[in-house]
Design brief:
By secondary structure, the chain is an alpha/beta fold. The protein has two domains: about 180 residues, inorganic pyrophosphatase (n-terminal core), CATH 3.90.1640.10; about 130 residues, Diaminopimelate Epimerase, Chain A, domain 1. It is about 40% helix and about 15% strand. It contains eleven helices and eleven strands. It has a six-stranded mixed β-sheet, with helices on both faces. A five-stranded parallel β-sheet has the order 2-1-3-4-5, covered by helices on one side. Strand 1, helix 1 and strand 2 form a beta-alpha-beta unit. The termini are far apart. The structure holds guanosine-5'-monophosphate (5GP) and manganese (II) ion. The site of manganese (II) ion has 6 residues, from loops.
Length: about 325
Amino acid sequence: MLIAHPRPDGDAIGSTLALRLALMRLGKYPKAACVHPIPDNLAYLPGADSFIQAVPEDPDIDLVVAIDMSDLERTGGIYRDDWRQNYPLLVIDHHETNEAFGDVNLIAPGAAATALPMINVIEALGVAVQEDIATCLLVGLLTDTRGLRTETTTASVLRTVGELIEAGGDYQTVMQRTLDSVPYQQMRGWGIALNRLQLKDAIAWTTVQVSEKEALDIEDHYDLDLGNLLSRVAEAKVIAAFTEMRDGSVKVSMRARPGYNVASIAYELGGGGHKQAAGCTLSGPLHTSVTRVLAMLQNAVAGKQQVHSEEAVAVSEFKNQA
Ligand code: 5GP
Ligand code: MN
């Protein structure tokens, strides 16, 4: 039983499908589960239509694998409490905030994507990483690095991308159908979010309300990917996007420039992620969530500036001594 997280992204789906294909080559019958539907820009991937959204009462399970998630809550309710006694749990992930909640934990903290430790797993199983499997892994690497832009994009990551292409991974299709493929409704949603964009003290933020999502027919499980959109605001050191849900809760998506950290803020608020990209869900209402998170982001930016000025003092003292 392979589990991807709710509002799934390219790394969760790509890494899960790659492992599914590898296990099938070994004659196994893996099931892939995710509480939410697979986004349109990932639907072309081999096996994308095989995801189940709910697990039958009496499932036939040997092993549960939690993929690209830092805590058990991120299975979105797929994982049931009584599984703990009955089935071993394997975690394959790359989040610094990972709580090592499995019986076995393969965590590559700070790695560009879960696709990277997944390559090691598949090779260790003795399955060749090529063709369909390589394409699925490319999706993970290319989406989690926002098209090879993030600080995690090392020379080794670029070499791995090259190797996956040489192994038959379809880079062009991934670029065209996943990264450069934003549904019209989503782009209209971006219009609303950008129209209300604010910037103060190197923090950029925006909100999207339920009424606005309703007008565009955007469901709660649909991820607008606002964090990655706002991450490009030049003046911003950190950004936050607040999306209101039908139950009044608020999904918070945060991004930080290198040197700043939003993972600790998300973790403190019950979520998780990476230094540069993290998120959480707050109980709401929207304006309270905004005030709360902005205060924490202000501290993060101010704290960093303080470190900078202390460094500057230390450097000038050193120069004076010299
Ligand atoms: P995004 O802002 O794109 O939804 O998520 C950014 C990063 O934070 C991703 O790595 C994602 O897995 C993680 N993340 C987002 N929301 C949550 C959450 O509610 N809990 C945890 N543990 N991680 C989250
Ligand atoms: Mn990931």
